[in-house]
Amino acid sequence: MGRHSCCYKQKLRKGLWSPEEDEKLLAHITKYGHGCWSSIPKQSGLQRCGKSCRLRWINYLRPDLKRGTFSQEEEDLIIELHAVLGNRWSQIAAQLPGRTDNEIKNLWNSCLKKKLKQRGIDPVTHKPLSEVENDEDGNKIQPTSDEQNLIGSTIIDGSNTQPSDSVGHFQMQQLNYEVSPSSSNPTHWFTQTSKYFDIDTEFSSNSMMSTLLPPLTSAFLSDSPSMAATYATRHWVADSASAGSANNNNTSASAELQSNDNSFYDNSGFSWGLMENHAEETKWSEYLDNPLLMAAALQNQTPQSLYNIEIKSEPYFLNSSPSSNTVWGQSQNQEQPLQNPDIFGKDIQGLTAAFGHV
DNA sequence: AAGATTGACAACCGCTCTGCA
DNA sequence: ATGCAGAGCGGTTGTCAATCT
Which structural domain, as residue segments, surrounds residue A85? Predict the structure, then answer.
């Protein structure tokens, strides 16, 4: 912890790199590779710490770096990714070949935040500023009932992706979160239209994550990007398996979930982990600004009512069902029970707490 | 013309995570 | 199980050129 050990050594230069230093580092890594960063300064004759060498290489000297200004497409992608991933710059950078996390972070802080504000979008929540603005009495302005009826619709555009034989693809284009306001026992559901998406070798670095399921996932995503992946994994796995193109390596996300005590498995053996890491009720308060949760909170029910959450292959259902047993993740298309429902019986309490007045 | 301000970019710092002995 | 070192991440600060006053 704390300062890197090599930095304790004396006579180490700090600050901007000179062309001579760049040349030394570039020549050394080109010839020998970087190997152990801490040994680079000694081997290359640089008066720098290994950490500084690493940073210089990653952010400036790497030959695969794309220099120059960001294109509009890149900026748009960064904004989309930030909406889902937040300040996870390295994960965002993984979606933009040739760009570094540092570069993207700087762009965001110096430019994109302002642009979003100019468009009337809050750069933190990615919601219209009007939604987080207060009225004269200091109360939050809430959407109208019409707005509640269809809230959080998102288009997932995968039209530019290329087929990937090695891993497969999944099917999902559009997911709408909707609330039926007329019922005394409101139903919340997600509808989707179908479209194929390609899966890269690693789920966490897939472009799908940039566009997948906001605002649904952003409601649950703050601490667990894998949750979003799980929503899609279920479809991807099913689809790619049926297409005969599933890769046994799976993805990092699904593999991780299968080894996670807080995840559970459906009867096809695939992992779901939607609510892992969210047992603490306090965490849910963070999501109350999300359209999904906001919409739910606008429903006028008792705080004690529980949600009976059911997930269908299409559409996804979120049914409120006071006092019923909570079953999380049960597919109505499958008759066999989940192998491990108890975990989610626990977690759903957190969800219920988050929904507040639902 | 000179100082102040701003913006973009580069680099550092403190911390966490992970692998290994 | 524990401590250590290396790697990596995100927040913050530093630098410098352009622009403003």
Answer: 66-129
Signed CA dihedral, A94, A95, A96, A101: sign only: negative
pTM: 0.49
Residues A72 and A84 in one domain: yes
**A56 strand B contact, CB < 7 Å:** yes
Any strand B atom closer than 7 Å to A107 CB: yes
In a domain, A40, yes or no: yes
As a whole number of angstroms, the distance between CA A160 and CA A153 comes to 21
For A340-349, write each residue's pLDDT tens digit: 222 222 222 2
Rounded distance between C-alpha atoms, residue A42 and residue A178, angstroms: 61
Bridge partners of residue A174, in order along the sequence: A155, A193
Report the C-alpha gap between A331 and A315 in whole angstroms.
11
Residue A54 counted as domain residue: yes
Q: A169, A167, A145: which is closest to A156 by C-alpha?
A: A169
Q: Is the CB of A105 under 7 A from strand C?
A: yes
At A172 the three-state DSSP class reads coil
Per the DSSP assignment, residues forming a β-bridge with A188 are A179, A318
- Is there contact between A3 and strand B, defined as CB under 7 Å from any strand atom? yes
Are the C-beta atoms of residues A328 and A345 closer than 8 Å to each other? yes
Distance in Å from the first CA to the final CA of chain A: 44
Q: Mind listing the pLDDT tens digit for each residue in A18-35?
A: 888 888 888 888 888 888
